Automatic annotation (TrEMBL):
Entry keywords, A to Z: Cytoplasm, Endoplasmic reticulum, Golgi apparatus, Lipid transport, Membrane, Nucleus, Transport
Name the record gives this protein: Ceramide-binding protein SVF1
Biased composition range(s): Polar residues: 269-278
Pfam short name (any one): Svf1_C
Ranges for domain Svf1-like N-terminal: 54-213
SUPFAM superfamilies for this protein: AttH-like
Any one GO cellular component localisation term in the record: Golgi apparatus
Top-rank lineage group of the source organism: Eukaryota
Biological function: Ceramide-binding protein that may transfer ceramides from the endoplasmic reticulum membrane to the cis-Golgi network membrane, and is thereby required for the biosynthesis of complex sphingolipids.
Start and end residues of each Svf1-like C-terminal domain: 215-378
Membrane topology qualifier: Peripheral membrane protein
Organism per entry: Penicilliopsis zonata CBS 506.65
Coiled coil: none
Compartments where found: Cytoplasm; Endoplasmic reticulum membrane; Golgi apparatus, cis-Golgi network membrane; Nucleus
């Protein structure tokens, strides 16, 4: 039984006791002194912790020709004894006429540069330039998906608060877990992904997120909401997670409104509301049909900022059963013991939504492209 418990804790995870909301030190507490911190190249380092954690770099692309795609490198450590990395590529078929392009490949002979800002493996690299202003992603890991992309930030990168991190644990001085996100909210993208069928020119706009879950993912969060809105002038992003009941079902929301060269607002006083939902028969989760995202705060010179993006999501792009590739007996145990049933719902409304932005007494509206996810875990 002890062997089963330890194995299950590593693979699927057991339920935690009820610690209460005081056992999470939300990054929102940091914003009382420091709303956000602009990133230097030094702060773009990989953490590569030697205990159970998942670290990701995800590059979202909205190409000028309407193509929607993302690439992602995942670096994970299980219990400090097993380190792996994976490279994922997804190109969406917005028409729904054919399956999305999806490639997921393990990486071998992993390495970091001396500064821990660039990552490499056999036939793969993610390189940050010396100025700390651009990432270049190159992959020949999969012959069916050759990647060569450059993301150049056109707005300062940032973390919310001082370090962008929420900490978990009953002793704030010695946390046992963490959640961190660093953002480049508005990037210029150049380059291609070449599949066996065609070469996709992905010149356009992008969003880069460096994420770290320094604990078992389903212990950190029970639900997620994420939105990436890009218009000709503005970018609006939001990442929200809700902890499991063990940490008081606490919501932590980080987001920003930016434009070229300027962070207008970044902070934690935001919300994502599913204004309409229906029960999905396959996943048994309440699939959102309409969502309202709201940002509220101040600029550096203390002008009030309020922004809203809301509307009908339309047909979902995808519904992902995260446990689909997990062996059946582990999936059963994970669901029954840990209450874990992770599904991701992804959307990009064909009817473009508008950002309604008010800064002080100035109001603007601008239409843009949107990608969002609603994730249910436990």
């Amino acid at each position: 039984m002890n062997w089963l418990k330890s194995t299950l804790a590593s693979v699927a995870g057991t339920q935690e006791p009820i610690y209460g909301p005081e056992a999470i030190q939300s990054v929102a507490q940091q914003t009382q002194e420091t709303p956000y911190t602009e990133l230097t190249a030094d702060e773009m380092r990989w953490k590569a912790y030697q205990y159970t954690n998942v670290e990701t770099q995800t590059f979202y692309i909205m190409a000028d020709d309407g193509t929607l795609a993302w690439v992602q490198v995942i670096y994970s450590n299980v219990a400090g004894i097993h380190t792996t990395a994976q490279f994922n590529t997804k190109i969406y078929t917005l028409s729904g006429d054919e399956p999305h392009k999806w490639y997921s490949d393990p990486l071998y002979n992993l390495m970091f540069d001396e500064k821990m800002v660039s990552f490499g493996a056999d036939n793969f690299s993610v390189t940050l330039n010396d100025e700390g202003t651009a990432y270049t992603i190159k992959s020949a890991v999969n012959e069916g998906s050759l990647v060569e992309l450059t993301f150049t930030r056109v707005t300062p990168g940032f973390v919310i608060g001082k370090d962008g991190t929420s900490y978990f644990g009953t002793d704030p001085a010695n946390p046992w877990g963490s959640m961190r996100h660093a953002f480049w909210p508005r990037c210029a993208v150049t380059g291609t992904i070449t599949t066996k069928e065609k070469a996709y020119d992905l010149g356009g706009r992008g969003l880069f997120i460096h994420g770290l879950q320094g604990m078992k993912p389903h212990h950190a969060a029970a639900r997620w909401n994420f939105v990436d809105f890009q218009s000709p002038t503005y970018s609006a992003i939001m990442m929200e997670f809700t902890t499991p009941p063990s940490y008081g079902s606490t919501k932590v929301n980080v987001g920003a409104i930016v434009k070229d060269g300027e962070v207008i607002y970044a902070g934690t006083t935001n919300s994502a509301t599913h204004t309409e939902a229906s029960q999905d028969s396959e996943s048994d989760w309440p699939e959102p049909k309409s969502i309202k995202w709201e940002w509220s705060g101040t600029t550096k010179d203390l002008a009030d900022v309020n922004a809203v993006v809301e509307g009908v999501l339309g047909p979902r792009l995808d519904r992902i059963d995260v446990m689909a590739e997990v062996p059946g007996f582990i999936k059963t145990i994970a669901g029954s013991v840990a209450g874990t049933r992770p599904y991701i719902f992804q959307y990009s409304p064909q009817e473009k939504l508008k950002l309604k932005l008010k800064i002080g007494d100035t109001e603007v509206e601008e239409e843009g492209s949107l990608f969002c996810e609603a994730t249910f875990i436990s």
